């Protein structure tokens, strides 16, 4: 439900008009945040950033927000901070959820692998994330995925990075969930706390509390020690289960 009479998607087009953007002219993410802060202060910073991604035809993460065919093709993302108007004559075709089911996963593997030097095991993290996003109650009863104006808490943008899952509990408090498919080392706590602080500063209302959850295949002793004095961070280990169903081939006899 829109906070104002117009949805954020429509307000983005008003912003473009106010900016007087011409073909090829770019703007930075902070300009959009400042424009909304001045004209529509109830719209949170994270919501603005997420809509920039949703409306960017070449942003792989837009698939999390189910872009509408022909309606959400407004921007072209130059880099993590710069955007320009989409040029249908020169730019590649927009990315849609129906285009390729593996497109987002592959893009994330490449992007994250280049930045952090991790293995392609990260591909499994997206599977874990998508499963948990649909089954948050296994973490905690009453937990639900954050949603606002078509933006969900899956890969929620926070200052150029992305929270794996942003959820809301039964008290309407935020829960930041960070996933690690391998071992959860103590350095992940710094990442989680940074995300929690960003949500507290830019997305949460004054009465909302912020908690954190780390889910890994194996929680290291260093991480357990690092979190031992933190009452607002919970640790979970996950286990994978596999079942097989035998399929008998059809026996077609040649007459």
TrEMBL record:
<keyword id="KW-0255">Endonuclease</keyword>
<dbReference type="InterPro" id="IPR002793">
    <property type="entry name" value="Endonuclease_NucS"/>
</dbReference>
<protein>
    <submittedName>
        <fullName>Endonuclease NucS</fullName>
    </submittedName>
</protein>
<keyword id="KW-0238">DNA-binding</keyword>
<keyword id="KW-0378">Hydrolase</keyword>
<dbReference type="InterPro" id="IPR048301">
    <property type="entry name" value="NucS_C"/>
</dbReference>
<dbReference type="GO" id="GO:0004519">
    <property type="term" value="F:endonuclease activity"/>
</dbReference>
<dbReference type="Pfam" id="PF01939">
    <property type="entry name" value="NucS_C"/>
</dbReference>
<feature type="domain" description="Endonuclease NucS C-terminal">
    <location>
        <begin position="125"/>
        <end position="224"/>
    </location>
</feature>
<dbReference type="InterPro" id="IPR011856">
    <property type="entry name" value="tRNA_endonuc-like_dom_sf"/>
</dbReference>
<feature type="domain" description="DUF7669">
    <location>
        <begin position="7"/>
        <end position="85"/>
    </location>
</feature>
<dbReference type="InterPro" id="IPR056086">
    <property type="entry name" value="DUF7669"/>
</dbReference>
<keyword id="KW-0540">Nuclease</keyword>
<dbReference type="Pfam" id="PF24706">
    <property type="entry name" value="DUF7669"/>
</dbReference>
């Amino acid at each position: 439900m829109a906070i104002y009479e117009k949805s954020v998607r429509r307000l983005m087009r008003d912003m473009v008009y106010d900016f007087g953007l011409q073909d090829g002219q770019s703007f930075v993410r902070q300009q959009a945040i400042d424009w909304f802060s001045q004209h529509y202060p109830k719209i949170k910073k994270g919501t603005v950033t997420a809509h920039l991604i949703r409306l960017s035809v070449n942003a792989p993460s837009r698939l999390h927000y189910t872009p509408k065919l022909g309606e959400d093709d407004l921007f072209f993302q130059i880099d993590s901070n710069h955007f320009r108007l989409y040029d249908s004559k020169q730019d590649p075709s927009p990315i849609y959820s129906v285009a390729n089911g593996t497109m987002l996963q592959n893009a994330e593997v490449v992007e994250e692998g280049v930045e952090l030097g991790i293995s392609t095991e990260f591909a499994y993290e997206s599977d874990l994330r998508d499963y948990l996003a649909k089954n948050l109650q296994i973490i905690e009863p009453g937990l639900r995925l954050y949603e606002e104006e078509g933006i969900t808490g899956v890969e929620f943008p926070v200052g150029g990075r992305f929270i794996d899952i942003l959820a809301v509990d039964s008290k309407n408090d935020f829960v930041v969930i960070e996933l690690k498919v391998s071992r959860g080392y103590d350095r992940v706590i710094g990442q989680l706390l940074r995300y929690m602080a960003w949500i507290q500063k830019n997305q949460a209302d004054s009465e909302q509390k912020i908690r954190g959850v780390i889910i890994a295949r194996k929680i290291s002793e260093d991480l357990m020690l690092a979190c031992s004095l933190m009452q607002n961070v919970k640790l979970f280990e996950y286990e994978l289960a596999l079942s097989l169903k035998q399929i008998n081939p059809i026996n077609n006899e040649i007459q």
